[in-house]
Amino acid sequence: MKTKITSADLHASVIAVPPLCRDADLKPDAAENAKLIRHIEAGGVSTLLYGGNANFYNIALSEYAAVLDQLETAAAPETWIVPSVGPYFGTMMDQAALLAARKFPTAMVLPTIAVSSPEGVRVAIMRFVEKAGIPAVLYVKDEKYVTVEVVKSLVGAGVISWIKYAVVREHPAVDPLLRAIVDSVDPNLVVSGIGEQPAITHWQSFGVRAFTSGCVCVAPRRSQEMLRALRAGDFAQAESIRERFNSLETLRNAHGPIPVLHHAVALAGIAATGPALPLMTDLGEDLREEIQPAAAALHEWNADLPSL
User: Fold this and answer.
1) N or C: where does the chain have the smaller number of CB atoms within 10 Å of the terminal CB?
2) Cβ-proximal residues to 110 (8 Å cutoff; 6+ apart), any chain
3) What share of the chain is helix, strand, coil (3-state, %, to 5)?
4) pTM for the predicted model, two decimal places
5) Are the CB atoms for 128 and 100 separated by under 8 Å?
6) Domain 7-302, what fold?
7) pLDDT tens for each residue of 117-157
8) Which of 214, 242, 3, 229 lies closest to 104 in space, CA to CA?
9) Which among 78, 73, 294, 51 is positioned nearest to 166, based on CA atoms?
10) What are the pLDDT digits (tens) for 5-57?
């Protein structure tokens, strides 16, 4: 596992956001998680973020250390693993102590607006960073979670490694909050955090030069190919690649991005993801029958592109 990072690492790879494989007893499955990681790495993807798709919101503190060790062991030497913490302050601080004893170079703070305020988020992140000894990934998922002033304060304090921006807009090019953030801090710190769908718009309209993806777990070579096209300024090629992800992304939008991806990885034959960890639930058989052909087609399309 990569333990030292630079700004170049953030832009070298699509940031995969995989599910966490579990066995029938809901225990993290080391063999299947390693299988999924190897599939993603084989596509040239070197950054893996374990957050919402991995249901780190509901992870037990009693298993957190074991999960960290499992992911670190499975990752290749040049793979960057980013675990998540929180979303609640007490959990975050207990997890900070566990991270302080390990070599993960950063961790993402999961957001919640149910029991938070922007200033409270600022204080919590400052305290987390102090205790864990590593900078945090700021995850902006809702307009009310933090203000631009809080973002500037945290970046100015040197406690933020990067910002995952994932506020969903009907028209991604019309986004006053994202505009204010990229105008207030170094845009190189900002990552488009909603998959391939808005990534091209965020690149062209806001100067964002990195993106996260869930579907990259099914087709890592193709997602990485899209990143290369964006870097080359070949937006027509990037758009043609993005369109091929739409069938699975449409299902994720309709039935939930987390459960659909969880099933898609298994239904494509990549790794056995197991049952959903509560408070999430598995989708019904009828929906899985819809997901399977979309996941299989994306996986086959990925295999058609030779690895680099």
Assistant:
1) C
2) 51, 52, 56, 57, 84, 85, 86, 87, 139
3) 50, 10, 40
4) 0.97
5) no
6) TIM Barrel (3.20.20)
7) 999 999 999 999 999 999 999 999 999 999 999 999 999 99
8) 3
9) 51
10) 888 999 999 999 999 999 999 999 999 999 999 999 999 999 999 999 999 99
